[in-house]
Amino acid sequence: MELIGGDRMELRTSALIGLLGVVLFAVVPAHGQNASPQAGSNQRCEEYGKQYVSPGGKDTNDGCGWSSAKATVFAALEGLPGGSASPPTAGTGALNVAGTVPYGGSIADGGLWLMGNEDAAYPKAPLGWLLYSGPLDIECTSPNSALPNGHIAVCAEKWGGNEDDRHPSYWFSGTAKGLVLSHFQFQYPWTVGKIGISAANTRTGSGAQSVTLDGVGGNINCDHPGGNRKGPNIDIGSNVFWLWLINGQSQACEGQYYPVISVSVQDGVGKIVTEAATDFHPGDQMTLENVKDSSFDSYASGTYTISSCSAGAQTICAFRAGGPNRSSSGGWAFGDRAAAINIDPGNSSGAGLIYIEDYNLQGGGIRYTCGTASWGLTVKNITEEGNYSDPMSAAVLFTNANSFGNAHIDTVQIADNIPSNVVAGVENDNPGANADDITADAAGFVLGPMIVHGLYHNTIFQEQTVSPLEMHEAGTISGVSFGQSDAARRLFGPVAVLAPNLASTYPGNWSALFGSGTVVGGQLAPDGTHNAGLISWSKGGEYAIGYYRASPAPVVVGDYYVFGAWTQSATGNGYFRSSPLQFTLTNDGYGAGDTCTPQSTQHTETAYLGQKKWDWTWGVCEISTSAAPAGIALSSSVDATHSIAVYGPVVMRLPKLVYTRDEAWNVAANLASFDSSCLAGTVCGLRGQELIEFRYGTLSNCTSSTSPARCGEAASGAVAISPSSSSVVVQTAAVTSNSEIAITFNAALSDRLRVKCSADAQTPFITAINPGVSFTISVPSSFSAVSGCFTFTIEN
Hints:
The chain is mainly beta. Helix content is 6%, strand content 37%. Strand 17 and strand 18 form a beta hairpin.
């Protein structure tokens, strides 16, 4: 016996116990089947909190089972406990959907639009919206399709519309209780979903928390009479936290990538010319990719803010940009509409605790723009697929990652992209970000500051011309470690000097930039000497001390200044303004308009506070603009509560004609302290260090009994003054005008020199030095029948 909604049955004979048992058995559903309502079915719907929607249903049904299913999702949501038609409200509980069903509601092209009390317009829901009371679980339990390349069976739905971006398939604004949407594919709207964007279509005045989309996907109808301006697939706004996108799929529109004819920067203003009309407007974020000049691309600052665009065709746009004047061509420009998943809180505090796992992206990636405060993203096991003919963005793109949050990206695959479009697995377009903000594990080719653990595809990495150091990356790539290690520096061995140290290593020569604090030398240094300086200040304000100071000083665009020093928080509470070293081009009122490139200047802060430990602090300044003679200074600042000890400061200028950017960064990353008096080309140490060895030798040792003695570049050797002669010329390039030459008479050199050496000792002396060529050894009187034999050693 089957009971359907609206039927009533009464059993009046209580004595027929056997018959009653049969009847009760008949109304109990078999295991795995949905219960059909009986008398008082509305009460039973309230009790179980579940509604059913199927293609053969009717909205006049009570929706309590498949046989009494509703026809539309809208009506079923109102039929859940707590739901109502006035005001339009979605109840709480579960909703089961079979196959393809209309969404329903009061407007055409409506979708699952739920408004919670965090939306600024609540409780006045616009037409087509439902007030959200939550919690709510909407699930496809009778699938009729599957996600592309996915392992999830789904119900294929056509909720929403494709004429504008205000009719998505689902839209959650201000919802703050558990909301779950499972196993659906939405077909061909303009935008598939919006989360945390207000009902007024703004990125502020809304939010969404505790939302799960499990096995949910969608494809955009990218064909449009006005051009391909649709997307993004999923748009996420402000105050969105605890969001899970798992086992899903999102497709982006390839028409949102605009080929670049030319791009240039002139005096801080960028200009881009594209082949086709763009959809950019003032205030939009534009990303450049694969431009021939990589300084426009992601490792430097690949995302820019549009300031204006030409009317009509919009093929010419201006944007704000730093760095030197330059021009290039090629590549693509794109914005947030090109994203498969766009996360952009606008001017609000941010969005975070977002988890995207086991996900398939098509034609575009995840685009994350941080807000003004906290953010966070976890991505695991994603694939971004192309179509072999159109470009696509990085699988995960951060336009402005900051230090208020962090991201962890684990396992990214890139497939089917065109050869001319080098696609990053992860890209961070904020050159000033800390590497610690983003961690990428097995994420493919990566660009920008982040911690990197391995690459699954090292061919692209091997062809890369930009060093991971320059991109502020750290970690292990293809078995090579990048980042900072002080192991070698801590040994304080002699240093091969590439260029003079412009900074003074002696505290007595440091000079105040401003303020009138104190510098006390003779402090214990990390190498055991007592040549560190303690800088302190007991009054209000701050005191700055300079280790290198040059003004006015000409600077050349493209030259590099690399710098470093050992620093210690003498007060044990960190550094003033968290910055132990400052490098500037504008000291003493000079250098107006002189700048370092944004991605070059790096001040490495201490990794942890510790207990007054010594830290190596270093950085690079690549001269970006040179408008006037500079005021160059390397300095430290202190205040009344932060004192600092400094040892071995170094500043070197590396000219662009000699050093490439990559080499300059490698020099900077491996820089070690050496004394200000050391000359380029020497191996030199620091003041106060004493070299003591059990024995030492020279690379070459000369043995020559001829006159002149031909000793090449030897700094030591054995020579002979011929009989009847009182001098010998020793030819060696090792001698300089500052050489100290030790000469010793040695009568035991006969076997070595293969001459008979005199036993009558004479005192030798130097009578001439020709730097880089030779020196002359002389004795008071000539040797008679045998040679005078001597050893020499040159110290420079």
